[in-house]
Amino acid sequence: MLLILISCILQGILFTNVHTVRSYVDGDVRLADAQYRVSAYYNRQYVFGRVEVSFESNWGTVCWNRWSFYESRTVCTEIGYHRPSDWSTAGPNRIIQDDRVILLDNLYCNGEDRLIDCRHNGYNNVRERCTHYDDVWVECYRDFPVHVSDLPIRLISQQAINAYNSQNNTYLNENDVVHAGLIQAKLNGDWYYISGVGWDLVDARISCRQLGYPDVNYIPEYDPEIALSEDQLIQVTMENLDCVSNERELKECYHDGWLVSDYDVTNLASVNCVTKEQFLSSKETLFRLRGGSSYWEGRLEILHELSWGTICSKDFTLTHADIACKSLGLGRAEEMFNTASSGYGRGIGEIWIGDFDCSNPLSADSLLDCDSSDWGYSTCRYDHAWDVGIKCQVPRPERKIRMLRQYISRQYTMPGVKFYYTEIYHENTWSSPCCYSLLPRISTNRLCRELGLGFGLPYLSRCETDPNKSQQSGLSGYILCYKQEYFSENCLSQLTKLDQCYYGYDVIACADRPPSAIQ
């Protein structure tokens, strides 16, 4: 009796060591000896393995006989993948050498959720001709729900990492604009570190331009011991990132896919970017922007013979706009247009130059490094309607003010004018500003431009209740901006939550044309 008890205990220990993840029931399916791969091009993860079914606490294989797409699809959906991409026998190179039994044969599936619910001959009722050469192998894939059309990145400074608060998963310096640190990418609303495997100066330069800086200084070292608390692993994405140098953003570079995996802190992507002040400190000021609501946008002008003049937009491309932004100490160009359609206004005086031809745009620090027309002899030298206007990327904190939804006004219906509710992120929640208490301190034009909603019309902004809110609570206080702040998030603020907004909420008016063009 004692020997039987000891034997049972040992069997239980061995069984526990083998099955540490979960307990299986008869009919469960898995892919054994699984191999994983990811495709950045198709934005998919693939898994390839031998189909096995559990029965009486043991795993057995499935014979290939009558196996088709429909059986493969049932297996893939049962293990959490979308569809099969391939299926085959083990063949001579994948035959298992243990005494595992072949459990099932002659399956027929027609949309069942579980393989065991498909028609088959029963457990251990397999024809003698089935061998492990005939074991079924299936490859399944699933799509990553990542919106690669919008892949924000940000820098987490060493100081912010030092001040990491593991209790609420925030960085104390997250609103600061920093030019050096570890790089994170935002996927599906969450921030993940970018892997440092394969990270080089080309990748770093692309990231700096995307972050709004003109160039990269170097790839800094960081202390991995203080990146996070000792009991946590880093979650990373975009392993083996490989940029060629002509990409505009990191999402365009080759990498192993969007798969997020646990990682230690010893190899993460980091960068030290050249700031605007550093870039312009040793250069003569020959370019400027005029007519925009912020320093990063406007009509592009150039200094020649002590006189400022405009630049012709004929055949002026986004590549030329990238170089122009860099010459201003800024990042990549977000937009390029002629001033007749931009609202920046037509220039006066000379149209100095145009017809640019940049043979090596990646190394150009200025438009003057490219071939161009002679001074004063561009294609559109008599028409300021074709003056170049650009909008550049600049370093910015994480957005704390956003457009909530459009307000439909029956009283004011003007072509090109729209009204919007807004929200402000305060104390870990988004809240709308109460009327007569907050947004009038912020330039309406500044807010419309920052949110990409056009030009602000402060004289049309109004107070309205929000029928979509069950409780009319909101924010009171002030956000006080002067001209030196880059963004509204950098302005001085004092905010308080109110249980009731008695006069409704601030609704801002934005137009696709400047105020002077609104009749």
TrEMBL record:
Domain of life: Eukaryota
Protein source organism: Oopsacas minuta
Signal sequence region: 1-23
Pfam family, one: SRCR
Listed name of the protein: Lysyl oxidase-like 2 isoform X1
InterPro entries with a match to the protein in the record: SRCR (IPR001190), SRCR-like_dom_sf (IPR036772)
Alphabetical list of PROSITE patterns matching this protein: SRCR_1, SRCR_2
GO cellular component: membrane
Cysteine pairings via disulfide bonds: 243-253, 481-491
PANTHER family: DELETED IN MALIGNANT BRAIN TUMORS 1 PROTEIN-RELATED (PTHR48071:SF18), SRCR DOMAIN-CONTAINING PROTEIN (PTHR48071)
Keywords: Disulfide bond, Signal
Domain SRCR: residue ranges: 29-141, 153-274, 287-393, 423-511
